[in-house]
Specification:
Layout: H1 3-10, H2 17-31, H3 38-46, H4 51-74
Helix pairs in contact: 2-3, 2-4
């Protein structure tokens, strides 16, 4: 990915409608603590997101939340640079 594509992905956008819908659902899950509006689900399904993919998105979000919470307690030494903060993130 080029830097602009990476930035757009971090902002939950992608040029591909299917990928964009997946990123949007993941962002909604995080922002709304697991709640996703019916309209957002309908939009994702219209973009071709399957029920299996929706379940996988929830699993990935849950795993990342668990990992982040654990790492806040464990405070492991990171072996990679932190990503810069996003301005204007959704």
């Amino acid at each position: 990915m080029n830097p602009d594509e990476l930035l757009e992905t971090r902002r939950a956008h992608d040029a591909d409608p299917h990928t964009d819908a997946i990123l949007s659902i993941a962002s909604d899950l995080i922002r709304n603590r697991g709640q996703v509006a019916d309209e957002a689900l309908a939009k994702a399904r219209a973009a071709g997101v399957t029920d299996a993919e929706l379940a996988e998105i929830v699993a990935h979000v849950a795993l990342n939340v668990l990992s982040n919470y654990f790492n806040h307690l464990a405070q492991p030494e990171l072996d990679f640079p932190a990503a810069p903060a996003l301005n204007g993130a959704r």
